[in-house]
Every structure is written in C-alpha cells, then in structure tokens.
Amino acid sequence: MILLVTSLPALADDIFIETYFSPEVVPVGDIAYYCIEIIGTRIHGTINIPKVKGLKIVSCKPVSSTENINGVRKIREILKFSIVPSKEGEFTIPAFAVKIRDQEYQIPSASVTVKKAAPNKLLRLDFFSDRQKFFVGEVIPVHLVLKCGKQIEIRENTRIECNAISSFSKLKLGNPHQSEIKVDGTSVTQVEWQGSLTCLKTGNDSLSFSMNLLTTTIDPSGQDEDQFLPFFGGSPSTREVALNTEEMTCEILPFPTAGKPTTFKGAIGQFTLKQPILSEKEVKEGDPVAVSFSFEGKGNFERIQAINLSDEDNWKIYPPKRTFKAKDESEFEGELTFEYVLIPQNKGNLLLPQASFNFFDPHQEKYIELAFAKTDPILVKAGEKVPMPTLQPVAKKSEINENALVPIKLRLETLHPRTGSIVHSYLFWWIQGALFTVLLCLAFWNRRRQKYLSNKKFAHSIIVKKILKKEWNKLLEAKKKDHYEQFYSSTQSIIQTLTSRLWLQVNSAATLEEVRDFLKTQLVDDETIMNLEAIIASNDLLKFARNQLTKDQIETDFKRLELVVASLQKKL
Fold it and tell me: Cα 41–45–47 angle (5° rounding)?
C-alpha cells in the first residue's frame, strides 16, 4: 500500500513534489521506503534529510523516467530511501528545503507508523554465545542461525554484518549449511553459519548482527494454506527484509597482570600439545636435524608466531617453518606446527632444547604454561675428514744453481714518466658508461613512445595509472580531513577508471547493472562485486542524505575500496 502523505500541487515552472512512505504501517525491524517524487526536473546535488531518532537510512536508489502528463513530456524522478525503524511509534520526517534550478523549494513532511513486530518463528536471525566477557585480542566463535519458511528463496549475495565495528574486527564467516527442521509442526528451512570475530579494544559494547535479506516467495499459487504469505501481504512477491539479532551486552577486558609469564606472546584460547616428531635419531657431525612441535585447539592461531626454546650450546637453531591446518572455515579451530632445523655443534648423545608454550585461557581466566614432552637423545657421530691437497714445488732445490748471476744492464736510459693506455683510465670508462646509459634510455623512451602511439591498450593503461594516482591521493587527503563529498567523488572516479580500463575505454558511462554483468563476465569474484555495490550505495546515500553518514562508515568503505582496487587490478 502506498500512502500519499502530502503534496505540493503546483510550483514555479510546473514542478511538482510529493512525499510518502510505502507501506504506511511497518513492523519494527522491517524496511519502509521513504519516497520523494519530483515531476518536471531532476535534483542535482546533496539532499540533507533531517535525522529522526528511531529511523535509520540504510540505502538510496534514485529512479528517473520520462512520461507524458496531460500531453506534455516531463521528467519524473523518485528518490527511494530504504529506512529501518528500531522502535514502535509514530514517526514524521519534517519538511525541509532543497534547491532546484537555483530556487529553493520545500520538501513536504511524511509520516509512518511503526508497530511492534510479532514474534515470527518462520523468519528470524539468532546469535548464540556462551560468554559475555572477553579479552582484547581474543578470537570469539560466532554461531548464527537463520530460520525461514520454505517459500523463501535466499539469494547467494546475502551478507551478514557485525553492528559493533569499533570493538570487533570484520566478521569472518564460513559457508552456510542448510537443513530442514520442524517448528510447531511447520517445515522450516534453517541456515547456519560458523564464524569468528577478534576483540580489538577494551570497554563495553553491544554485540549484534544484521542482514538485509532479499526474499522471494517461490509458490505462485497464493493458496490460503500457505502460512508465510500473509507476512508479505498475502501474495507471492520479492521483498527486502532487515533482520537483526538481539543485542548482547559484552565486556572486553585487558590481560591480567597477575601470573603473566615473561615469555607470553599473546596466545589466547584452549590448546593441547602433541608429541614432538624427529626426522633423525642418529646423524653425523654437521648434518641437520628437523624437529616438529605441534599443538591443537581453539584460539587466535593467526597471532601465534613461535614457541619458546631453551638456549643450548650443543645446537645451532634456525628460524622455524610455520604450518597451520584449519579444522573449520573460520580458522578458529585447528592445528599449528613449528618445524625447526637444528645443526649439532658437538659429538655424542645430545639432548634437544626444551620446548614450551604458554597461553591465556579465557574460560579459566588464567595463564597456562605447558612443556613439550622430552625426546630421546640424538647420537651425533664424527664426520669423515676430507684430506687437504698439498702444493708441489715447480723444481727441486738441488736443481737450482745458486751461483748463477743475473746480468745487469749497465747503460741507464733517460727516465720518462710512464703514460699508460687510455683504456686503463677510470675517466674513460666512466664516460663510456654514461654514454651507454643515455643511449639505452633514449632507446627505451623511443620504444615506449612507439608503443604508446600504436598500442591503444597500452596508451589507455598509462592514462588509467595517472588518473588512479591522482584520485587516490585526493581520496587519502579527503579521508584525513573528513571531506565526505571529495572522498566519495574520488571513490567514484577510481571505480569508473578501473571498470573503463577493463572495457578499454577512457570514459565509460554504464549503469550499475551493466557494470555488475560485465564484471561477472570477467570472472570477478562475488565479494568484490558486493563491495563495489556497497560503496556505490554509500555514494548515493551521501548525495541524497549526507547527514546520515558517519566516520566509521567512511572507514568501512575505504577498506572495501582497497579490496575492490586490489581485485580489479589483478584483472588488468
């Protein structure tokens, strides 16, 4: 249902403006569309929508068309904002001013009613955790469960995000696992994700997760026995639904100082040691010995760099080779191995250096020190000595005539200063090297120039590099100074430059759908395409609702852009 809240029936130059919400009544957490419809022109520039507590703008999609109204061809533009209400009540976005053709007009107010969301067992997102107290640097497991009716089709590009981005790292999720379960006698599709988060800083925060789910009813019959269709108004349709888990208040603590080992290197979790493995039990002096120390468990494996080895004069120890085998897709559980190469320095039965490993157990809230099991001594035998070659004299001493005298030339000629050949002069070779370098540079420059003039692809790549360098510097400067318009302007230029480079065009004008389809033909991964879409959505949001953006959003989009640029440059 579309509710026309208010309108301006006539403005100067036959410009009409209407505002409305669709639908007029929406449950908490569902998506309502705040629409600004303009007939007679397009809006160029920024629209600052007033902030309303309880309403959050998540995206904006402008749609333009040309229509015949009363026999007159006119432009019709609809700015469609996706808004998610967070609480019950009656909400009104007040009227505000906007400039059109250098004239100021009033955008009318519009209202929406938000009702309490009925507990829906057929469409919900749940987050499960056995603890609410964590430690900085700890990797915590995340278990998310989505339950939805069988009439709902989940799109492949569905993305789940953590809402506490300042306290936790980016959510790392494995592949979804789907199953069929029964809820109150009704068949329900259950999708589960296993993932992990890393605690970044100390303090209190509210941890929750959200996802915008594009749902499609796949039963077109619309029969009354379908228990899920009434949620979407009683008929098959495609709709965007915002799902949020319940918030969990959590506390992130620093490491305790009591009992902290001096060799502690930041390992957090629960681990068990395995028996060390030797490559040899008997070697010759100077031959290497490989020994592997392994442990398994759950924790922050990516931050564990080495174990502790005691100092031994009998062995020369080289840096280890690190090997990790994950047992889950989020790399929270697995086995880590450090393989050391040791060279014996003495002979006899030599004991290996004592190896140990310490970590902090967040469940027991104490430090654990474990020692690897001792191995049997290694027998080091003496190596075979290689005889050194002896130098033979050219002639025997008895063959040399000690009485033989070398004649001396009695006539002394005039001494003249010796002037060596010019080829022995350092200056000569320096000049030759300089001339060769100049000729080489000229040849390279001429070849590059000929390639630039004859190869369109190469010339285009040079232009693209210059544009990218210039816009990237502008973007970094805008990010540093919090200039949102310049930041997203440079972001848009960088994306357009990279996509046009793939198209082999300097200026490429294409819609988002055309860009998406083209990138798929270039085998660009889905994550890159989703990041690009999210950046473009933020760009549209800035254009039409600047005051809804935050510095955290800018930082998130900057990281997304880095991933997009790195991925697309691999395709160039």
Answer: 90
